Amino acid sequence: MLWSAPWIEALRVRPALAVMVAAVLFALLWTLVPLLFFYSPPALLLEHVVYAREWRAGADAGGPLAAWLVGVAFTAGGMTAVYLLFAAASIAAVWLAFDIARRLLGRTLGATAALLFLAMLAMGSAAPPFAPDRLILPVTLWLTREAWRVLGEAETEAWPALAAAAGVALFAGWSGWVSVVAVGVLLFTTPQGRVALKAPEMIRGAVVGVSFLIPFGAWAAFVLLEQGLAGSAFAPYSLVALAVSALVALAPGLLIALCAGPVGDRSHVGDVPELLRPPLPGFARPFLSALAGWPLLFLVVPAMFGASLSLWGVTAVAAFALWLVSLRGERAGLHRHGLVALLWLACLLAPPIVAAATVWAAPHLRPAGEDVNFPAQAIARPLTEITARRTGSPPRIIAGDLFLSGAIALASSAHPTVMPGADPARAPWISAEELARDGAVVVWSITDPSGEPPFEIRSRWPDLRPQAPLVVQWAIPGKLEPVRVGWAIVPPQPVPAATTPPQPLVVPAPMPPGAAPKPPAPEPPAPAPAVPAPAAPAQ
Question: DSSP readout, 236-270?
Answer without folding.
Answer: HHHHHHHHHHHHHHHHHHHHHHHHHSSTT-GGGSS
